[in-house]
């Protein structure tokens, strides 16, 4: 031990020389400079998109569906298949001839629903594969982490399924865009329906996924239900991917609450809802009223997972395949022909995001991020399944109709699980961008 | 342990020099393998350092810690807090991270080292899982929970403001004397730390202290019977490897200023055990190799999709190609864990000494062939 702590003079000299040589080495390599107008400017006859989705973890089902939709979008952009929503989008300059004359290629990666892994995977796409745009994410924590990475690197980020207010609220970025709706809109759309169904004298108990999305959804739903006159008994945070929720559900029974609000998504929601039903919550009478469960953010994939238990349960969703407008019908048709089942809302939003990005590039005449940002800001379009939609310039959030849905009591097929209760118009869910704070900052071209 | 007597100081120096050249030339020779991009090379260096540090504990003393990710996490959080409070210079962040991770390791080691074998492993695992859950729930004000801790423009960053560099346009990146620590400069920064860590590890292995640690591994009871108290030695090794982990955690944040609790999850602790065993526990270069293999498969195999497979197998006839692609796609993309698991099984069964042992065997085979066979009988192989 003594020897190690007191190295010989010769040893120190040798070591010093080695470290010195090591320190000098990097200058040889770092002198190469990149000369281009913007990062990853496509030079060949293809342009590369990066699809960064969860393939493992609590949101893997959503991720798999997102990837299917992206692959379909690439086909349609390259003029293969029946064109899907390219035919119904209005206005559009896309012709199914690639983007700006370049064929669309793509790379994929697994976010593992972890910020670290998602950022590593996005960095690989940017640094190695030369992706000009990153899209995906099925968790707001991940989406926010990747969005800020894309801002720093200087590429566009088209958010996938992320529902937190923060994504286009306090963590918004100039290079990031979101088509999906958010927790605030869910609350605003759901509240009137809750009032007419359950009355204005209710006691609510929240179980909330413990991360940015859960927090903002809990806050938004709390605000809008308390405005109805409801009382919030307690709000309990549960870890993401907990699996077993029984320890959280037992206290609900003795809390005096008569509504359970599950701020969960993906497999978490499937587990917590199933267990809540198994504990007999829905058969209970509290304060002289039937006990009710509400799932503010719904998806068909989750309804499929929870099976019988979703019947009659209220929630909101961004889009549903049973919508009868031209865009939705075209999308459901080409998705169904390709994969044999209808798309989920995750698939819809990611498909639309890919098409919107391509359209913006075409209109801007360049892939340069700042040009694309300009083309997307304030862009109004229709025929993409949600009625007339606005990409608001102030926070890069889309404003469109929100669906209030209910678990179908008498499903006619294994996909017919949600029934649309009401299509809430965009005006009713629009808010002032200032309420969430945050700064978009400057757009970044990456050079 | 025949290796100890065979190695000479000159041989070590030569090996270290070769290693240094290989590391610093990574951008050149990794490019054809598809891994020559800065982020992955940074990961190679950082997780290499993590594994090299882990090997000082596991390889030398035989104490199998299943909680090293906790120190990685502590290092990360310390570094980000140093960015937030002091400024974006990586040096104070790294210094603080090493000190704090070392202190944390001392506390955990002090308790855990009272037991050996499986009990020690379980104790460290429990501590790491505790830290993970704390970071996730109770300590949310410090760690920002699942969302992860980030540096914001509104943070104090005292040193930056003193130097007049407080107002930053765009995003905050760690900067050392005007050089931004991402991309290639970030890699070289990590590589230099890796070389320093590697050099220290070389010296440790060859020191009397290292010998004492190996003695603990071979028979701790006998050491105790001869009147030597081994625990201080084991604790020192534990703290040193904790400091390595803290350094690795800090470097993760230097190259990307964000710290999340998932870095402390037990899977991350298991990963470093895998890296060390895969490469060769107790060898000098093995852990680095293991880290490289695991990070390479995580980043490259996981990115393969059917499209890439069709490109690779495009030369086969249509029917065959479809079959090959559908089989191969099980092992890439989301199935990369399967590939890694198979590789791990093969190595543990056939090469218990890891990839390094494989190298030695090939070397021995070549030598025997060169001498016309049979001449190698005089040099018995180490009984692994």
From TrEMBL, chain A:
UniProt keyword Transport, yes or no: yes
Keywords: Amino-acid transport, Signal, Transport
UniProt cross-references to InterPro entries, sorted A to Z: BCAA_transport (IPR051010), Leu-bd (IPR028081), Peripla_BP_I (IPR028082), TAT_signal (IPR006311), TAT_signal_bac_arc (IPR019546)
GO biological process, one term: amino acid transport
One Pfam family, short name: Peripla_BP_6
UniProt xrefs under SUPFAM superfamilies: Periplasmic binding protein-like I (SSF53822)
The Leucine-binding protein domain, residue ranges: 46-408
Signal peptide feature range: 1-35
Family of the protein in this entry: Belongs to the leucine-binding protein family.
Family matches, as PANTHER family: LEUCINE-SPECIFIC-BINDING PROTEIN (PTHR30483), PERIPLASMIC BINDING PROTEIN OF ABC TRANSPORTER FOR NATURAL AMINO ACIDS (PTHR30483:SF6)
Protein name from the UniProt record: Tat (Twin-arginine translocation) pathway signal sequence
Protein species of origin: Rhodospira trueperi
Automatic annotation (TrEMBL), chain B:
Locations listed in the record: Cell membrane
InterPro entries: ABC_transp_permease, LivM-like
Segments passing through the bilayer: 16-37, 44-71, 91-111, 118-139, 186-205, 232-252, 272-291, 338-359
Bilayer disposition of the protein: Multi-pass membrane protein
Coiled-coil regions listed in the entry: none
GO molecular function terms noted in the UniProt entry: branched-chain amino acid transmembrane transporter activity
Record's keyword terms, sorted: Cell membrane, Membrane, Transmembrane, Transmembrane helix
GO cellular component: plasma membrane
PANTHER family recorded: ABC TRANSPORTER ATP-BINDING PROTEIN (PTHR30482:SF17), HIGH-AFFINITY BRANCHED-CHAIN AMINO ACID TRANSPORT SYSTEM PERMEASE (PTHR30482)
Entry protein name: ABC-type branched-chain amino acid transport system, permease component
Upper taxonomic lineage: Bacteria, Pseudomonadati, Pseudomonadota, Alphaproteobacteria, Rhodospirillales
